[in-house]
Design a protein that fits this description.
Chain lengths: 188, 287
């Protein structure tokens, strides 16, 4: 049997997550209502209430490298229904951001998707759906997986071929740069 | 004529083109002038707030700043865009420090002083009487399952107005033009949203359950106000059938397409030929 030692360091992690998210993580009493309503729970390694439990126990490495935080669809059902009024989806956001800062997001498909999506926005100011789809296919090594849908979209002229372009694209790039700099400074 | 600033969102130029067509056509009929925000940018959607808290606020905030400059309230037809704009506005309004920070991040004056409306809200504001007066082809005999999904109703502390578990706004609008709407359990069940590419299994399982619930409730079609929900339910319906050996043929329409039909607009102008699941039979039923 594994023995779990709860150290002061563990408490520190739970407190930092509480502070950063503004959510009283320690008040979760593990009722499981978040998990009962979660659309993605069956594809997760840890169910949402277990993710919160990992945070309470201070198991930082374990929670930041789990698949669950990346399978979360950000649907806010957990937040809407929590009897303790804990915004669980907000905590998921915080955990993803922390995982990124520690490089633990690598290999997570949803993190790659977010990167490619935002890269398109950074380049054009708006999302270029075709570019996102094509790069996703190449990066995941399955370039033809979405081909049937792409063909259907092209046939209906629902896939813009040329990238969008806004005049304020430099402003948008600046937002990306400054936001990253400030978040880094804050959490060092 | 009521004027609004208009934030089409990225898919309006692409995969959500028919929603854009229907919104423009119905707005014109309702006397809503939609003035597109010049040089609007992507709101960042789910990837934005998933990546960084400030990024997730600042991308929508630029559009809110542009809206303030126009001196108009803004309509955001995409549920995801609407959710991000309202979230950013509420969160920044609660924190004076954040408001100053936004000004610095954007290099613009941020006030966040204009109302953000979803498309259903903007249409509802026209009033039931006027809607009724414009209805030339009531949707009698048509049974609709109104599907709200997540981002039009949650989180309830941010998105206020409708009941987060049993919303009624779309039902009221479509009943107002003669349709019957069903009471069903999947009004606000998530379709899996942006996980369609990273974790398709989540989306296919969810879409199957939603389609099954709509069939069980004897709906002729599903009505939605979200291009992301629409993409999952319509475009991926054939994949659901292949994966689970089912035979769903459930048309998924944007609510403004149904309103447009009731107002006597022609199906082509409402983009009804652009769906993956055919809508022609449904349209014939109304006409």
């Amino acid at each position: 049997m594994d023995v779990l030692v709860l150290s002061g360091r563990g408490q520190e992690f739970a407190n930092r997550v509480s502070l950063e998210s503004g959510q009283p993580v320690q008040q979760c009493y593990q009722c499981g209502k978040c998990t009962a309503g979660c659309p993605a729970a069956s594809s997760m390694d840890y169910a949402p209430h277990q993710v919160l439990h990992l945070v309470q126990l201070g198991l930082e490495e374990e929670v930041l490298s789990c698949r669950a935080i990346w399978v979360c669809a950000s649907c806010y059902t957990c937040t809407a229904r929590c009897p303790c009024r804990i915004e669980v989806a907000r905590i998921m956001d915080i955990l993803r951001a922390r995982a990124r800062r520690k490089g633990l997001h690598r290999g997570q498909r949803a993190a790659l998707f977010a990167d490619l999506f935002l890269d398109s926005v950074r380049r054009h100011g708006r999302l270029h759906e075709l570019e996102l789809g094509a790069r996703w296919g190449l990066r995941t090594g399955q370039p033809w997986r979405e081909a049937d849908l792409a063909a259907g979209l092209v046939a209906r002229r629902k896939l813009r071929l040329r990238p969008p372009r806004i005049r304020g694209v430099e402003e948008v790039r600046r937002i990306f740069r400054e936001a990253a700099r400030l978040e880094e400074g804050e959490h060092g | 004529m009521v004027r609004y600033a208009y934030y089409p969102g990225c898919v309006a130029e692409g995969s959500g083109r028919e929603y854009e067509m229907a919104n423009r056509a119905v707005a014109a009929r309702l006397g809503l002038e939609l003035v597109e925000i010049e040089d609007w940018n992507c709101c960042g959607a789910t990837p934005g707030h998933n990546t960084g808290h400030l990024l997730g606020l600042a991308l929508p905030a630029r559009n809110l700043a542009l809206t303030s400059d126009m001196g108009l309230d803004v309509v955001a037809p995409c549920a995801a865009c609407y959710n991000r704009l309202v979230t950013a506005q509420r969160e920044i309004a609660c924190d004076p420090e954040l408001q100053v920070l936004m000004g610095r991040l954007l290099g613009r004056d941020y006030r966040g002083d204009r109302r953000v409306l979803s498309m259903p809200e903007a249409v509802a504001a026209v009033g039931a009487e006027r809607m009724k007066a414009l209805t030339v082809r009531p949707l009698e005999g048509l049974t609709v399952a109104c599907y709200y999904g997540c981002l039009l109703v949650r989180p309830p502390a941010v998105i206020r107005g409708d009941d987060p578990e049993d919303p009624r706004l779309l039902d009221d609008l479509l009943r107002g033009v003669g349709a019957t709407t069903v009471d069903w359990a999947h009004k606000t069940e998530c379709c899996g949203a942006a996980q369609a590419l990273p974790h398709e299994e989540v989306v296919l399982c969810r879409v199957r359950r939603i389609l099954e619930a709509a069939v069980t409730s004897r709906a002729d079609c599903i009505a939605t106000a979200c291009p992301l929900c629409h993409a999952n339910l319509d475009q991926r319906q054939a994949r659901v059938n292949r994966r689970f050996g089912t035979d769903y043929r459930m048309p998924v329409l944007y609510f403004t397409q149904l309103l447009g039909l009731a107002f006597g607009l022609n199906p082509g102008e409402l983009g009804l030929g652009l769906h993956f699941v055919p809508t022609a039979e449904l349209v014939r039923k109304i006409a």
